[in-house]
Amino acid sequence: MADAQANPGIPGSTRTTRLAPSPTGDLHLGNVRSLLLAWAIGRRAGWRVLLRHEDLDASRASGDACDAIEDSLRWLGIDWDEDATRQSEHLDPYHDAMRRLESRRLVFSSSLSRRAVREAAGAPHGGGEVRFPAELRPDDERAWRFDGSDTNFRAITRPGPEIVEDELLGTHRFDPSSEVGDQIVWTKAGRPAYQLAVVVDDHRQGVTDVIRGADLLPSAARQQRLHADLRFETRPRWWHLPIVHDESGRRLAKRDGDTGVEALRAAGVRPDRIIGLMARWSGMSGTPRSITAAAFADLLDEDALRRMVSREATEPLRFTKEDRRWLLEP
Ligand code: GLU
Fold it and tell me: CA-CA distance, 308 to 168, in Å (whole number)?
């Protein structure tokens, strides 16, 4: 990395992690697992734990969903320090970041449709993502000025590898320029895109440890690029957690409505059952039993965490009918 270094820990101050749900509906059990593990790792180690609602996608997020998530977390026994924040309430820091990138001539506006980009870029890479190639950068000088307008802005992605050192998954090598090309950092809704918002917030909130689902591992490489482009002197450590699948092996998602916490709660499931299932999934208890979130944090030592990660590397976790039955058992 050119100008950002891995954060060796801030002397004299505690480390900070964050829970960063997207309030687009009921939390599903996969979300709960990542949030619970992030919380438990942070609490065991005595770190600050923040709650940040990632509600910038106005078409999907809602204030009511933020309230519902807080209610679900409290019900599960997961707490946080300080007041929860909502990204949509503080847009200035994102404008500042865009101006910073603009001053380094690293962002440009582009109104090319996905289709136009796809046609120009040829076949999408394996993830099906549309790559924005350098040839499509605009010549018009005005496009390199950021005015917060309702056009997509993209950040230049320089070619070359980006190495992600993950506390749990080890070293991974990505090449954002061949995967995504120039990535969107500002959307035509006049709001920051996910990648920019996360980097700005993790920096300004002093987050030293990002703990989240492994589906976001490639994003870590893209976020490292933005950390460097913004000349942030520190960047967080990464901890990417294995994710939960449904019985058919697909990633558990919001479409699986009946795996939502609110839906389970409405069906009479107790929070300690849900945490108990998480403990069994994490290899912390062989036989199913109900436990509290606090007991879960006590059981989760570093060895348990590492055993869980290496087991799930070969045996991905699935939410089965037996799991559901156990949750619903009186
Ligand atoms: N808001 C994202 C999600 O719910 C998580 C982002 C992150 O942890 O960086 O998937």
Answer: 10
Residues 225 and 103 in one domain: yes
Using alpha carbons only, give the angle 300, 288, 298 rounded to the nearest 5 degrees.
20
Q: At which of 185, 213, 241 does a domain end?
A: 241
Global pTM value: 0.93
Q: What pLDDT tens digit does each residue of the chain (330 aa) get?
A: 333 333 344 444 589 999 999 998 889 999 999 999 999 999 999 999 999 999 998 788 788 999 999 999 999 999 999 999 999 999 999 999 999 999 999 999 999 988 889 888 776 665 678 899 999 999 999 999 998 778 999 999 999 999 999 999 999 999 999 999 999 999 999 999 999 999 999 999 999 999 999 999 999 999 999 999 999 998 999 999 999 999 888 988 876 667 899 999 999 999 999 999 999 998 887 788 999 999 999 999 888 899 999 999 999 999 999 999 999 988
151 C-alpha to ligand 1 centroid (Å): 24
Q: Which residue lies with its CA nearest to atom 5 of ligand 1?
A: 20
The Å distance, Cα 210 to ligand 1 centre, comes to 10
Residue 88 has phi, psi (to 5 degrees) of: -70, -15
Q: Is residue 202 a part of any domain in this protein?
A: yes
In a domain, 10, yes or no: no
Six token digits for residue 307: 């055993």
Q: Domain tally for the chain?
A: 2
> Which mutation among 54, 209, 254 tests ligand 1's pocket best, with the greatest number of atoms within 8 A of CB?
54
Residue nearest to atom 7 of ligand 1 (CA): 20
Span from the CA of 140 to the centroid of ligand 1 (angstroms):
35
User: CA–CA separation, 184 vs 22, rounded Å?
Assistant: 19
Contact residues of ligand 1, CB 6 A cut-off: 20-22, 54, 198, 212, 216
Q: What are phi and psi of 180, to 5 degrees?
A: -120, -20
Domain range holding 34?
16-89+247-306+315-328
